[in-house]
Amino acid sequence: MPRTAPRICPLCEATCGLTLTLDGSRVTGARGDADDVFSKGFICPKGAAFGQLDGDPDRLTAPLVRTDGRLREASWAEAFDLIAARVRPLVEEHGPHAVGVVLGNPNVHTMAGALYPPALLGALGTRSLFTASTVDQMPKHVSSGLLFGDPFAVPVPDLDRTDHLLLIGANPLESNGSLCTAPDFPGRLKALRARGGTLTVIDPRRTRTAGLADRHVAIRPGADAALLAALANVLVTERLAAPGPHLTDRIDGLRELEDAVKEFSPEAVAGVCDVPAEVIRDVARELAAAPTAAVYVRVGGSTVAFGTLANWLVDVLNVLTGNLDRPGGALFPLSATSPSGPPSRRGFALGRWRSRVGGHPEAKGELPLAALAEEIATPGDGRVRALITIAANPVLSAPDGDRLDRALADALDLMVCVDPYLNETSRHADVILPPPPPSRSAHFDFAFNGFAVRNQVRYTPAPVPLDPGAMDECEIHARLVLAVSGLHGAEPSAVDDLIVDRLLRRAGASPDLAADLTGATGPERILDLMLRLGPYEGLTLDALRAAPHGIDLGPLRPRLDQVLRTRTGRIDLLPEPIAADLPRLRASLDARRADGTLLLVGRRHLRSNNSWMHNLPALNGGSNRCTLHIHPRDAERLAVTDGSAVRVRSAGGEIEAPAEVTDTVREGVVSLPHGWGHDRPGTRLSVAAARPGANVNQLLDGSLLDPLSGTAVLNAFEVTVRPALAP
Ligand SMILES: Nc1nc2c(c(=O)[nH]1)N[C@H]1C(S)=C(S)[C@@H](COP(=O)(O)OP(=O)(O)OC[C@H]3O[C@@H](n4cnc5c(=O)[nH]c(N)nc54)[C@H](O)[C@@H]3O)O[C@H]1N2
Ligand SMILES: Nc1nc2c(c(=O)[nH]1)N[C@H]1C(S)=C(S)[C@@H](COP(=O)(O)OP(=O)(O)OC[C@H]3O[C@@H](n4cnc5c(=O)[nH]c(N)nc54)[C@H](O)[C@@H]3O)O[C@H]1N2
Ligand code: SF4
Ligand SMILES: [Mo]
């Protein structure tokens, strides 16, 4: 008998509620859950492909262990025995930093990835931590750390109430949003327009999002920080800056900030932005004139040379216009599992240590993912000799995959991957620990509820029980923690107890609370505790289980005083590390480019998800192709024709891809999507390998970083394009 079950979609930050159709243990369909309190029935093609993803025959169903150079299926016991036997001696001989940890994107989309990595890192004591943040949103964390004292305090646009949205370097009509969790982002943007609000989009491509906008500014890539500084300049010089009474006694450094943006007049930045000064003035005036407004930036303004400055300026503009922490502006969500009680005033520090080879400062305890290869391959004390990757495919997602590929192959004593696929990265593993498909896992969004445009809370238990021989990902993580801490063989519940203890102690709560926790599993008990310790009275796991479509907790509310963790308890508008980086931005205004220079930017397709969903027939194909978008005038100048193969070259490398001539990119800009390049041997990705595409990150050598955050420059770098020679 077919039945249905709710499951929150883990495939992007929108966190839509889905209704799965199940035939026995097989997922036969997925539709949007019309009763979901937040997503109200929305679904996209990725969510609709849930069944195919869940049942992908290429998924690993048992651990793989390398013996005599070859990966073969093994028991869980054998896999964890091997890890326990190899990690501790390595740490004892070479120190804790010799074990590197890479946490990839899906970690923020699983309960395991939210709950256990801190315990793993604590057990290892390593500083060799690399995550997807440094190819993504680290500039926002650094900016929030410096402004608000908390790298996780991210103001999100009040999408459903704002009168004006200034959206920079983001394409939520394809990505469905990021650091702004909003199921049905497209519908919410249309609703903004329908209620008389306005949308301005800044993007070198005329994206589908830009197609919805009242104003689209096709900026030259990489120049957003300059443009944003000029917007601040206009607000200041035209006396349009009005932080408002709710902020005036919460901010320091307004005068210093005004001085700092003086040299960024619209006229001064117009050249580098390739946007007329008058347009910049208009954008600033519209922002100031809107009754409420929110400024928002994502990937296209973050993975660039001035990513931290751009992210900082976004919140500076939200402050200057009085829109920070007010309805209709940019507000701090209050998630059900965020700790309640008064915030500490510890502040935020950058660069507490540096990477061994490149000397890159840590940010939020992390080193740049772009520096992973050199940390493995460069001999010397403190070299990374063992690597644990969890839900990460850095061979494709980070700069210079070829170099990392070689480092993983040649220079590691041990590599452990927690991953359902044998892919470009995990093919180098000594042990692969495969988590079950998502239909076999419970789901709760620990991370994304903290970035959601509406406070709400939802939990979906696993729709289908584990298959025989499979292991829940939470248990995999717990056993991994035990294996690396010398407690191999102990019950994984010991790790759950440890996490519960820590939470209780941090909250100053009575240890007796542990006895009250409900929940059939360790992670459920931890979730129950976090809800009980959280800011919403009476919220428990039982309450959530009784509300399978979620509980709405209302619109975002002003709460700046609960959020600020700076030592002063105030916002320093011009933090010292930012001030020290501004001369670099100033210098960029004078940079001259040769005529005909092309800058490359990325793009996402609706039916894609970074590097790992090209293996689903429903998603790989049609318009989701790895092509180089090039403007007709550039194509003509370079004798490139639509559909023909072109060579793309940059300082970091060279790749080949078919050209797609389109005026959706501005002149002087070409665009390639990322996550492709599935042509390496030894993987088990039969669909992806048949249409491998090219790895755009092979154009980068990992040397280009935003210095404040260590984030790789993945957008707005120079390339040359020429027709590929006939074979
Ligand atoms: N050029 C360029 N490069 C980019 C970007 C760009 O815009 N341009 N974007 C960057 C961004 S924003 C990001 S976030 C990164 C993403 O890069 P990564 O963090 O490397 O993530 P993915 O490429 O999504 O690969 C996810 C891995 O997790 C595995 N996985 C899937 N589901 C699960 C699960 O439930 N559990 C576990 N343990 N593993 C799972 C998949 O098999 C895959 O190996 O890429 C970055 N790279
Ligand atoms: N379908 C799909 N959805 C996804 C993902 C996916 O791979 N596919 N990945 C998920 C992940 S990990 C993330 S982080 C989010 C990202 O979510 P978004 O940030 O919305 O991601 P993108 O679609 O890459 O949008 C970035 C935009 O920036 C533009 N851009 C590039 N360079 C510049 C520049 O210098 N200045 C300006 N102003 N714009 C620039 C690009 O043209 C592009 O339109 O998406 C998530 N959702
Ligand atoms: S928008 Fe994101 S969360 Fe919603 S169905 Fe699509 S992939 Fe899943
Ligand atoms: Mo991302």
TrEMBL record:
Residues 2-58 form the 4Fe-4S Mo/W bis-MGD-type domain. Keywords: 4Fe-4S, Iron, Iron-sulfur, Metal-binding, Oxidoreductase. SMART domains: Molybdop_Fe4S4. It holds the Pfam family Molybdopterin. InterPro entries: Asp_de-COase-like_dom_sf, MoPterin_dinucl-bd_dom, Mopterin_OxRdtase, Mopterin_OxRdtase_4Fe-4S_dom, Prok_molybdopt-oxidoreductase. This is Molybdopterin-dependent oxidoreductase. It comes from Streptomyces cremeus.
